[in-house]
Amino acid sequence: MTMTMTEIDRTLRELRLSGIGATLETRIVQAQASQQPFIETFSLVLQDELDRRRSRLMDRRYKKSGLDERATLNDFDWRFNPKLPRAACFELHTLKFVGDGANALIIGKPGTGKSHVAKAVTYQATLQGYDVLYLEADSAFAKYSLSKPEEQNKIMRSLLEPDLLVLDDLFLARRIADASAELLQSVVHQRYKLRRSIVVTSNRVVQDWGKYLGDNTMSGTILDRLMHRSVLLEFEGKSYRLKEATARLARDGTVD
Questions:
Q1: What is the Cα–Cα distance from 166 to 175, expressed in whole angstroms?
Q2: Who has the most CB within 10 Å: 12, 48, 121, 246?
Q3: What confidence tens digit (pLDDT) does each residue in 15-32 have?
């Protein structure tokens, strides 16, 4: 017995085939207008379903990632700081290091684009099917140090599970609490054993990390594991934020 369109729509909803349901009438009209073979029409409606599912999966990964923007390397002004390690940034963007279980340290002056590159790599990883977690490091560690033990256990698990963990602006506040330092050491150690990648950005050169951790031995342990399988990118140059602020002030002054 032939179904009506209403019955077909209801059946598609029961089967959770919303991608087909969203485009079916269009595909029917298309097939009738061009006298498409059945197999061609069937292939198109299946592709519609696949596209819808992939889109939803990517949206879920993005929401879980902790990102607040979909940054890319294409919208980065490389001409402003021509000495930035452009080739190394694009190599990082290929995500080969994630497959290898390697790490990346992006170290340099404030405003030179470290966070933008880290966010672009994070977003690319969500598009490529990786589970990713992006965090503003000092805020995340402060939350951990103020949490109860049960909540700390949940935070620890959340830091160990993703394929890629991104800790942005580590040591922005210089000194971190003892509990936060211990968490960083444990996360780096556990992810090293699991061969799960970490990206760290920081304004602080690695030689000074002992001061911010309050423990040179702990700093050595962390860096030993972070840098064993890693790439170090050094960002020097002018601040993009200062450039944008200066341009904004100039515009506002012109308006006045």
A1: 19
A2: 121
A3: 788 878 788 888 888 888
**Distance, CA of 103 to CA of 208 (rounded, Å):** 19
The answer on 114 and 191 residing in a single domain is: yes
Q: Quote the pTM value.
A: 0.79
Model confidence over 161-174: pLDDT tens digits?
Answer: 999 999 999 998 77
Q: Are residues 28 and 91 in the same domain?
A: no
Please report whether residue 67 resides in a domain.
Answer: no
Could you tell me whether strands 230-235 and 164-168 are parallel, antiparallel, or unpaired per DSSP bridges? Answer: unpaired
Residue 43 included in any domain: yes
Residues 114 and 52 in one domain: no
Instruction: Indicate whether 75 belongs to any domain.
Output: no
What range does the domain containing 153 cover? Answer: 86-243
Give the position of tokens 């003892």.
178
- The amino acid present at 143, given as its one-letter code, is K
- Contact assessment for residue 166 and residue 122, using Cβ atoms and an 8 Å cutoff: yes
In whole angstroms, what separates CA 36 from the centre of its chain?
A: 42
Q: Would the pLDDT of 181 be above 60?
A: yes
